[in-house]
Design the sequence.
């Protein structure tokens, strides 16, 4: 069965610090990978996605993630965080075909201190 | 273009009562998914509609949960009777039926509290 592990449950950083949130997955086949973000009081929205091609993907608001197939990882990074990045971040995976359901990690709550 | 809309945003009910959650997907999206997040845990899949048909309902916890999507437009998720462990945030998502490279768009969720 597929699973996603997010190692950091709550991360607290100061503004301008660099960010890396870990995500590892287990899935028997070719995958699509996603990072979703939920800002306080808002809906889940897509931050970035990997389907194929360049394993380094860039998303909105200066975020990027790197797919490392050999490590089954899809870590999220941002070189300099802002207070407005305070949110909960979810890594998710699904299979390559057929509009499959998403399997999510437990989420990482990120708090940025001004 | 309107996004995925869920009603209500919050619901507090007593154990044993019935609650119906509604999801309006993005117009034209044939895929509709329900997910649930129990506090502190991961977002878990409940079921998947393609148009009005249930494609995958492997995540439905038990027969107290009934999902419908009559006419292939909006969907409802009814919990009857509600139990304490049903508390959580229920998310709906939709996507077009266009093949492999598609992303799901989520609603804001319904926070259900059973007391």
Sequence:
């Amino acid at each position: 069965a597929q699973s996603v592990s997010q190692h950091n449950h709550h991360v607290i950083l100061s503004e301008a610090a660099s960010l890396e949130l870990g995500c590892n997955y287990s899935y028997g086949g070719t995958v699509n990978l996603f990072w979703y973000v939920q800002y306080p009081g808002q809906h889940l929205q897509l931050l970035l996605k990997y389907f194929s091609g360049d394993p380094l993907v860039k998303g909105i608001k200066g975020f990027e993630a790197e797919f490392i197939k050999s490590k089954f990882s899809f870590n999220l990074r941002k070189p300099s965080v802002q207070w407005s990045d305070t949110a909960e971040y979810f890594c998710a995976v699904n299979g390559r075909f057929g509009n499959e359901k998403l399997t999510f990690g437990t989420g990482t709550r990120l708090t940025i201190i001004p | 273009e309107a996004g995925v809309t869920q009603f209500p945003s919050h619901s507090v009910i007593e154990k044993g009562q019935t609650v119906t959650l509604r999801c309006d997907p993005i117009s034209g999206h044939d895929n509709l998914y329900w997910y649930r997040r129990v506090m502190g845990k991961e977002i878990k899949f409940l079921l998947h509609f393609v148009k009005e048909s249930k494609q995958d309902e492997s995540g439905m916890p038990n027969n107290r949960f009934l999902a419908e999507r009559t006419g292939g437009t909006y969907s409802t998720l009814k919990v009857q009777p509600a139990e304490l462990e049903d508390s959580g945030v229920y998310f709906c998502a939709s996507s077009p039926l266009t093949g492999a490279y598609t992303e799901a768009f989520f609603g804001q969720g319904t926070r259900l509290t059973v007391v």
In short: Chain A touches chain B at residues 4, 32, 34, 36, 42-46, 49, 51, 90, 92, 96-99, 101-107 (CB under 8 Å). The longest strand of chain A covers residues 87-95.
